[in-house]
């Protein structure tokens, strides 16, 4: 400001200051939580048309000593604002690979695919490929069972660079899924160029398929498009038999949602797959 320090005080906003302070406190708390082992992965089943569990998605939770289980939407956005998301991403990758290695030793579980969420920030770091390769070899997992869920935000910039990275991952055997499909702005021309294995229909479209004609049209279009591009399509957030029937009728072959099971700790899933 042109009148120097005095005038700047006017811009001091106590409410904003509070928000910033609480964010900083949350970030520090989160870093401590990571070091103290308070982060956990829960796993939600992904099923085929016969309701067989074909895979799971790893979803992060924070088991806070006072506040209990904190869902990811309350802390991932804060982590995304700093390099903390990279440390969390690395922890997720290694924790999921350690679990996958365990499952690959058990006959009833060895067929499972494990999908993890990768933030765009993490995907775009120069050593992302190396961290995936290291996790795969350190835990001795079959890479073809590992799936990375990416969002359209990874491809806003340099499509060629993203494509090159994806091709290296594909060469390891890793599978690639495009998460929250339909909610972003990426063009179909981009999508067509990328070596994806799967499109994931966002929960917001699935929720209203029976009641909102525009969501119905959207879901049909996504399924058709996936089929035309020879991509598998999975619907997330399937809660009712009605939604499932609609999706099946229009050619969707994989499903995830409370109708099949909620995200649970690995030990509970073990029981569920063997018992079911
Ligand atoms: P997402 O990747 O779209 O994950 C799906 C979310 O939908 C999960 O919420 C899941 O619990 C929820 N869900 C699944 N089926 C149903 C259903 O039938 N009904 C309803 N109402 N919800 C359902 P969650 O676990 O709270 O995760 C929210 C978001 O947080 C994820 O959305 C993802 O963007 C992010 N996230 C979760 N884990 C990680 C992680 O390890 N790393 C990163 N970077 N982000 C993560
Ligand atoms: Ca996901
Ligand atoms: Ca989603
Ligand atoms: Ca709607």
Automatic annotation (TrEMBL):
Q: What is this protein called?
A: EAL domain-containing protein
| Boundaries of every EAL domain copy | 23-276
Where the shown chain sits in the full protein?
Answer: 682 to 957 of 957
Location(s) in or outside the cell: Membrane
Q: Which domain of life is it from?
A: Bacteria
